[in-house]
């Protein structure tokens, strides 16, 4: 009898243990399912490999003299950039009010010109120069040979080369320094690798500074990306929509035209000197309507803005 009770107790204990294991497994499955659902939900707004963190980390890894040298050769943005969060919901709204046929933001009948001069005024990137090469094969081959690769490596590969401080030639550092900002901040896409379009300029590295960087960032990348983003809006597969390009610029150029009254920011050039930290989120929240959309505050037209500010961009745009 005692043995029978012992067996029974052992059986009950074993059953209890099995139940607990089963519950744990079920709990894990529920958690995994939630994570998958969350991941799918986030994918709708996770546009590209745009990453201010990646961009900032490579800037922090460069010494002052190197940064100054490459800034002068490539773009001013590196001198004044500070991590600045760009809300996905907000920048998606801005993209949706862009008329990609004219290449301008249109809100309540007001037009905000998306032109190369505004790229220069927001980011400090030089204006003018030759178009980026359409034939990228030669430039791609130069880069692959330099880094002994058979295919284009991930953006992280180039970032790591800069962050580790390994002994690289000046040309190698220069190539990495261009590829990382292009791929993570100025012209990102949805891939972990850089777009082959970025590599054409490396066919003759001595001439890299002769190319039209502002035109490439705006015309060849951002406006094309917005066009694809809006066209895919009617697609049945909406989860795969991606918004490429410099989301920072798109957010800032819109907010720069919004009438915030006494909260109006100084018109320092380039605007990247002003829009830092959480400022884009703070000001986009001030422009949010009760329904979660935006354009709560009026958009200033060029004539009005020109009387309030002395921005070179405003004067140039108004005279066009």
Explained architecture:
With 320 residues, the chain is mainly alpha-helical. The chain has 2 domains: 1-43; 52-318, no CATH class. Helix content is 53%, strand content 3%. The protein is built from 14 helices and 3 strands. The protein has helices spanning 2-43, 52-61, 64-73, 77-80, 88-96, 116-123, 137-146, 155-163, 170-186, 213-231, 247-255, 279-286, 302-308, 312-318, and strands at residues 98-99, 104-107, 110-113. A 3-stranded antiparallel beta sheet has the order 1-2-3. The longest helix has 42 residues, at 2-43.
Summarize the structure.
With 320 residues, the chain is mainly α. Helix content is 53%, strand content 3%.
Radius of gyration: 25 Å
Work out the helix count. 14
Q: Mind summarizing the main beta sheet? A: 3 strands, antiparallel
Total tally of structural domains: 2
User: Overall mean pLDDT score?
Assistant: 77
Helix content: 40-55%
List strands and helices in order, with pairings.
Layout: H1 2-43, H2 52-61, H3 64-73, H4 77-80, H5 88-96, E1 98-99, E2 104-107, E3 110-113, H6 116-123, H7 137-146, H8 155-163, H9 170-186, H10 213-231, H11 247-255, H12 279-286, H13 302-308, H14 312-318
Antiparallel strand pairs: 1-2, 2-3
Task: List the defining traits of the structure above.
320 residues, mainly alpha, 2 domains, three-stranded antiparallel β-sheet, 3% strand, disordered N terminus, disordered C terminus
């Amino acid at each position: 009898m005692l043995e029978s009770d012992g067996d029974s107790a052992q059986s009950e204990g074993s059953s209890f243990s099995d139940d607990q294991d089963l519950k744990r497994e079920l709990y894990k499955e529920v958690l995994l399912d939630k994570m998958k659902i969350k991941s799918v939900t986030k994918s709708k707004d996770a546009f590209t490999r745009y990453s201010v963190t990646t961009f900032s980390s490579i800037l922090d890894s460069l010494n002052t003299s190197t940064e100054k040298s490459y800034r002068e050769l490539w773009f001013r943005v590196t001198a004044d950039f500070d991590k600045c969060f760009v809300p996905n919901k907000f920048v998606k709204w801005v993209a949706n009010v862009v008329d990609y046929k004219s290449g301008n933001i249109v809100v309540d009948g007001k037009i905000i010109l998306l032109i190369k001069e505004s790229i220069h005024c927001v980011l400090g990137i030089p204006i003018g120069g030759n178009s980026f090469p359409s034939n990228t094969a030669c430039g791609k081959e130069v880069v692959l040979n330099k880094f002994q690769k058979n295919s284009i490596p991930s953006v992280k590969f180039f970032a790591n080369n800069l962050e580790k401080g390994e002994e690289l030639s000046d040309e190698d550092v220069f190539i990495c320094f261009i590829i990382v900002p292009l791929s993570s901040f100025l012209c990102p896409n949805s891939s972990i690798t850089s777009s082959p379009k970025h590599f054409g300029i490396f066919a003759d590295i001595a001439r890299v500074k002769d190319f039209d960087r502002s035109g490439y960032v705006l015309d060849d990348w951002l406006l094309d990306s917005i066009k694809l983003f809006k066209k895919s809006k009617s697609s049945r597969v909406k989860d795969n929509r991606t918004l490429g390009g410099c989301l920072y610029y798109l957010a800032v150029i819109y907010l720069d035209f919004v009438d915030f009254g006494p909260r109006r920011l100084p018109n320092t050039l380039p605007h990247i000197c002003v829009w830092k930290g959480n400022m884009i989120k703070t000001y986009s929240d001030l422009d949010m309507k009760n329904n979660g959309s935006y354009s709560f505050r009026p958009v200033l037209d060029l004539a009005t803005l020109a009387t309030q500010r002395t921005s070179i961009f405003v004067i140039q745009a108004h005279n066009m």
